Amino acid sequence: MLSLLFASAAFALPEISISKRDAHMQKSLMARGVYKRDSSVETNVYNIAPWSAGGAYYANVTVGTPPQDQVVILDTGSSDLYFDASTASSCSGGERGSCRGGTFDHSKSNSYKVVAQSPAFNTSFGDGTTAYGPFGEDVVGIGDLRIKNVQFGLAETVNSTTGYAVGLMGVGYGFNEATDHSYPNIPEVLTLSGAINSRLYSVYLNDDDSTGSILFGGIDKSKYTGDLVTINLLPDARTGTVFQFITTVTDLSATVGGKTSSLFSGGTNTIQAYGNDDQSLPVLLDTGSAAWELPSSYYSRLFKPAFPYIRKDFTCPCSVRNRDDSVTLTIGGAVKITVKARDFITPYYDPETNQAVPDTVDSGDTLCLSMIQPGQSLGTGFMVLGDAILRSMYVVFDLDQGQVSIAQAKLNSTDKPNIVEVPSGPGGVAKAASAKQPSSSQTWSIEPAVQDQTASFSASTAQSTIGTATGTAAVPADAQISGEASSSGSGSSASAERIDWIVFSVSALVGVFVLGGVGSL
């Protein structure tokens, strides 16, 4: 789960909560609180029943005037914002592959504009999923923030290979957008509108049963333990430019049955990591992926022998989640992250019934799945490191500086939030975190922000916050899985208790903090 925050002198930090849906894996329905500090609002995040076999974190947003509810994947591994069109043929019916995150009917919005006709938006993903249609422009709502003139793709044709089709909010570098004519995406729009100081956000997924957040423009010191260490991202091996969130795993050890063994070590966090002579594993930090993919040789020679209870098909009895086993990764040669087995071994659920699948090998147990698996290289020089590992990490993605700052996540923290705005410019995260030493600067070129000289972005507070329903009622009707029972009527407001923070009992998939007072749309 993630919450999204925005920090600037003009706005309160906006935070969007997101929820996790892993088909065949996640099931629990967790309604969580929403926090308000001064004029900042964070809507809650929670787990809900599975949609997608690939697994992802989801957020509630709106689009159009009047607003139409949407659910989108929050994805650090891509860059486009897109919604499924109500006219898409695959969005009709409830069969696998249909659009379960809501659809956008542009004919019912009086502020929608066509930017480029279909198939100007044309995207595909590694799992074979494709989507295409026109580019449009409209008012997009995130938490209590409404932003005018936001461009997005409208998927009039959708083919989902892994589960129900859902829209997407990509928060990566704009260079990776699915168009020849780049446009300001969400991190850039938030910066251009004055909602945040720079293209920066912090991701805190938390464990798979609890709340999490993505905070735009700031960090939350209550969400991690130890030092927040800043690491330079690796550039693309061919161009020498940073435009993806690629770093390295330089060391890996496993603790099983109380015994710790080193699986590999001695790598570097330099461009040499792409070469065969370096022990490092270049990885893409991707919230849109569920698993950590290891090269097949590393998996079979190193990881699999360390965890003998994980079978050839990556399954195991769920009882092993109660063991105190773990893996420890060193990221970028600088920060150690320990991941408990219960966080990378996930219950397996039948997507049709939402029931736990019995383990036919160990009678009386249920079936679990290891989310550390062998992957197939796509010729990119790196593998994907997804939610199975990211849940144990607090990560600050700083697009402007070409860096990430990482610490061990404080899972299920009950500490009072301690949100600090990050100033723009080099060393901003170190200053906000009160680091003992300043961080080094990125030496490779960094993909600049997309500038749109024709668009004017303005952010305003809305008359009501997205996600004032509880339980599954927070999910648009089109997105609710058959058999799910709502725990509250849609749109029902919850009580608020004021201390220093106001806690709202809402269950939006995405919450937003906005700093400062602004007008209303």
Question: How would you characterize the overall build of this protein?
Answer:
By secondary structure, the protein is mainly beta. It folds into 2 domains: 4-220 and 446-515, Acid Proteases (Cathepsin D, subunit A, domain 1, Beta Barrel); 246-285 and 291-385, Cathepsin D, subunit A, domain 1. It is 6% helix and 37% strand. The protein contains 5 helices and 38 strands. Strands 3-16-15-31-32-18 form a 6-stranded antiparallel beta sheet, with no helix packed on it. Strands 7-8-14-9-12-11 form a 6-stranded mixed beta barrel. Strands 20, 21, 22, 25, 26 and 30 form a 6-stranded mixed beta sheet that branches. Strand 10 (113-124) and strand 11 (130-142) form a beta hairpin. It starts with a strand and ends in a 6-residue tail after the last strand.
Shape: globular
Low-confidence stretches: 1-5, 21-54, 464-521
Q: Give the C-alpha Rg.
A: 21 Å
Mean pLDDT: 78
CATH superfamily of the largest domain: Acid Proteases
What's the domain count? 2
CATH architecture of the largest domain: Beta Barrel
Beta-strand segment tally: 38
CATH class of the largest domain: Mainly Beta
Detail the topology: elements first, then pairings.
Elements lengths: L3 E2 L6 E2 L1 E2 L1 E4 L11 E5 L2 E3 L13 E8 L4 E8 L5 E4 L28 E12 L5 E13 L2 E11 L1 E3 L7 E4 L15 H7 L7 E5 L8 E4 L1 E3 L3 E9 L8 E2 L3 E11 L2 E6 L16 E5 L6 E4 H11 L8 E3 L8 E6 L3 E6 H4 E3 L19 E4 L1 E4 L7 E3 L1 H4 L2 E6 L4 E7 L9 E3 L6 H5 L12 E2 L12 E3 L34 E3 L3 E4 L6 E4 L6
Parallel strand pairs: 1-38, 8-14, 9-12, 19-34, 22-30, 23-29
Antiparallel strand pairs: 2-38, 3-16, 4-7, 5-6, 5-37, 7-8, 7-11, 9-14, 10-11, 11-12, 11-13, 12-35, 15-16, 15-31, 17-33, 18-32, 20-21, 20-22, 20-25, 24-28, 25-26, 27-28, 31-32, 36-37
